[in-house]
Specification:
alpha+beta, 6-stranded antiparallel beta sheet, about 270 residues, 3-stranded antiparallel beta sheet, single chain
Length: about 270
């Protein structure tokens, strides 16, 4: 009878030990691979500590830049507030200046009115009370609206004539245009005859390139051309023009005090 245990092989079975060995081998392999990786980076010039220091330095730099950015935002906000305050201050100054200019204009008109009522050293008792320059749609065309009135007590009818002239610049040179040069019908003057006042509404056409600065009116009474009264107004194409000159004239057309009125002489005033 054959022996049934003749080919029996006995082997030990330890699965836990095998698992531990397998895990240890895998861990060892990972350590070896990581060590080789770090060794390669080290040979290439990479340092872990240097990398950490760089990251910390960059983080600190970012924090400083963010703080600086915040300070600049605050400064910008403060500058914006200051700019708004300055703008409001400028607006208030402009309003105050406009009010002062309006008051000066009213006082100047009042002074012109009362000075015209007295009008010393003049034999002509007629003056221009108001002067208004109205621009038309056509370039260089204007309407001159003004009122002649008696000064003092209007006892009788006064009659005479008035000559207009316009001072300005033509090609940057002082130029004076007579009424005949700017009047559409080439009239040399305006006749008047009234007791209290007389209104005028006259058209003038200025030549191209002429920049008006002042309009003058010389008034003569009756047929006496030896004496007159001259007034000048700032050329203002809106609102009432301000008077800049008022004086008597002698027979040569000069001023009563002996100082001649030179042709082309400008008396430019800004408001």
């Amino acid at each position: 009878m054959a022996d049934p245990f003749g080919k029996l092989v006995v082997r030990s079975h330890a699965p836990r030990r095998r698992a531990v060995l397998f895990a240890a081998s895998a861990l060892l392999a990972a350590i070896v691979l990581y060590g080789a990786f770090e060794l390669g980076r080290y040979d290439a010039g990479f340092r872990v500590m240097d990398s950490v220091r760089g990251a910390l330095s960059a983080s600190s730099r970012i924090a400083k830049l963010e703080a600086e950015n915040g300070r600049q935002r605050e400064q910008l906000a403060a500058a914006d507030v200051a700019r708004r305050v300055d703008r409001e201050g400028y607006k208030q100054v402009e309003r105050s200046l406009g009010d002062m200019q309006s008051q000066i204009a009213r006082l100047t008109q009042d002074l012109s009115f009362y000075r015209g009522l007295v009008q010393p050293d003049s034999l002509v008792h007629v003056k221009v009370q108001q002067m208004q320059i109205v621009p038309e749609a056509a370039v260089g065309k204007y309407r001159l609206k003004f009122v002649l009135m008696q000064t003092g007590k209007p006892d009788n009818v006064v009659a005479g004539n008035a000559a207009l002239s316009i001072d300005g610049l033509q090609r940057n040179k002082p130029t004076t245009l007579t009424f005949a040069q700017v009047s559409p019908n080439r009239r040399s003057g305006l006749a008047y005859s009234f007791r209290y006042f007389q209104d005028y509404d006259e058209f003038v056409i200025l030549p191209p390139g002429f920049e008006p600065t002042r309009i003058g009116i010389e008034i003569h009474s009756g047929k006496d051309a030896s004496h007159g009264f001259r007034q000048a107004f700032v050329w203002k194409a809106q609102g009432m023009s301000l008077e800049t000159e008022a004086a008597g004239t002698d027979g040569a057309g000069g001023r009563a005090n002996g100082e001649p009125h030179r042709k082309g002489e400008l008396d430019v005033q800004t408001e």
